[in-house]
Records
---
Amino acid sequence: MRILSPITEAKLHCKNVSLFISKYINSMYSISQTHPSKIFNFCPKCGHNNYSFDGTNGFNCASCKFRFYINAASAVAVIVKLPDKRIILTKRKFEPRAGTFDLPGGFVNTMERVEDTVKREILEELGIEVTNPKFLASFPNEYVFRNISYFTCDMAFVCEVNNVDNMKAADDVAEAILINPCDIDFNTISFPSIVNILKEYLKVRIVT
Ligand SMILES: [Zn+2]
């Protein structure tokens, strides 16, 4: 076995990681008809139409050199767990994917802590208070709203509650149900990121 110096090993590791990341981005990042590059045709600063998408994270204006980034928006999805191991699923009231089941959660507000988003969204959507959210995993999603894609990083948290006696569906939630996670039909779930989060939870829930 060939022995490499720590520096060479570190360089190889970095190269492999960066190759993996770029392959991953390319594999998931097919340009849809609702991608911002199909919608934004003019520079928002100078109005020139020489405004183009760079293929990864942003737009460049060849006229005034303005650069605009479309980084992933932070969002939370929360697994609210009862003592009997059931969790809460919410039925989406509005598009996109109205009528499908989701995890409670939503977008992180500007200048808001993710931990506070968890508490705010659970209170807004279900009328219950949660404390001490524990991070589980994150998965990317393409969220199409009114014909434009928002790329999100959906961060999953697990919260435990003793009861849901005061739970009341509100905001953009049509209905809230309690379900054993083993009984979830993934065909009824709203987004691939939420399916991935639920599968991850099923894998690790014994130790959460
Ligand atoms: Zn410009």
---
Amino acid sequence: MKLAFILLIATVSSELDINLPADLLSDLVERSEDNELAYSLAEGEEEEEPYKYVINYEGTIDDFSGINASYGKCGKEIEQLDVSKMKAPHQIRLSYTGKATEMAITWTTNDTTEHEQVNYGLMMTELNYTSTSISHQYKWRFNETSKEWYYTSGFIHEALMINLIPGRIHYYQIESNGMKSEIIKFVAAPEEGSDIPVSFLHVGDVGTFGTSVMVTNDMMKRMEVKQFHGMIHCGDISYANKYDGERPMDAKNKTFAEQKVWDTWGQMVEPVGSKMAYMAVPGNHELDIWDSTNENGTIYAKRFIMPGNERYFSFAVGMVHFVAVSTDESIDAESTQGQWFKNILTEVNENRDKWPWLVVFQHRPIYNSNKIHGNWTGKNTPQYSGPDLPPFKGWKDQYEALLVEHGVDIVLNGHVHHYERTWPVRNRVETVKSYKNVKYPVHITCGNGGKSLYRFVPKTDYEDSYNETLPLFVAARSNRLWGHCELEFYNRTTVKHAMYVMGEDTPREEHVAVITKSSGSMPACFFNLYLVAVMIFVMI
Ligand SMILES: [Fe+2]
């Protein structure tokens, strides 16, 4: 029996009708010479008509057919799936382990934990390698009245494909208690240090809304015309804590996250995550006790296979070294993450011949024109501390100093629900308004992946609290458009970043940045030392 749903959304013919007002489609905020902010909305403007769009999916998959999201900033949450009746494996996702010769894979079944394996190889007709899975299951929220659990997961399988040929196309097929899936293609990570161009998608704050489906659909379309090596999800993944806008409550009136949302999200992204490594980092909606509605990172850990401790980790793909940071726990110098962060950046930077590109990805940005939600002031927001939470001290100077000292090129973020890209910047105000030969990190927020968007109106509400004046470091931002982002590392000195607006095949000019740097990636500190040495030499 074939598992037709593996290409769940891809096989569903779709009709997309985005009915946004024309003025919302030319959105980039322009900055005048005197640094006055040109808001896309006039100050004091009242809430206007909600964005209107219609999504009609016509297909044979009942669970995703008939989606009609026509109200709300991000559309109605799509109907949550009940996957408990599914016979075949589902929620298939790949992930890198940190070795170019390996790829981890997870899938879920309902009926069996035996005879679960993945067969793989270099040719569709020769899937000669086999890896059997280990599996686990979890229960969520016991109902004291009915004496039953609100939710019991399927069997979540994890397997490791080894002996891959770096950079080569491979094929795999899941074998589940005698049934076989479709054969799916993926590319193994290029060998560390190779000069092969590397391409990644990246997105944040997605959920399971109408817009989430549309953005995911756009990424699938891009995958039809381009081979990507992986996907970066900068936290706030499924929003299981707020099913249909509400926090579910148990018999004792305690809130809890709705786990069906995780299953729905897993199915929604399967056409992306089953074909390339889907690398995630937890956001506040996975890790923070309140925002995750008591998941507190436990469900994230059960559903993802990331390297290291799965919250902060690193992995290399060819010429690029990615470092994931968990922004809802301390990264102070004396903290475990802080020490790890310093060590990994030091190690990577000592091997820039191998990894000329160093990319950090995380959930909360430190540079963002949102003055509270983005933590760009370097201070923590009070709502993320409390008697039940470990002390969170915010961003201390070590973090940014380490970014600069070790020549981090790009920092990817989510959390703030808009698109924003900085110039190369350090110390808040030291900005170079050029992407040529960059010396400081460029911070990119791609928090427009599906969840409701924030607006550039100066207010005191914490989600919409923006400064009257646009910070100097802002190069581009957009708050009226959902979308996903892409990074294409052409070679050792040039990378192209682009944000693709939802429903559009090509990126708009204002959403594209070509970033170049000198060969060898001389970090700022070494550059300064070099200048001093030259000056001394000249004086002598
Ligand atoms: Fe967030």
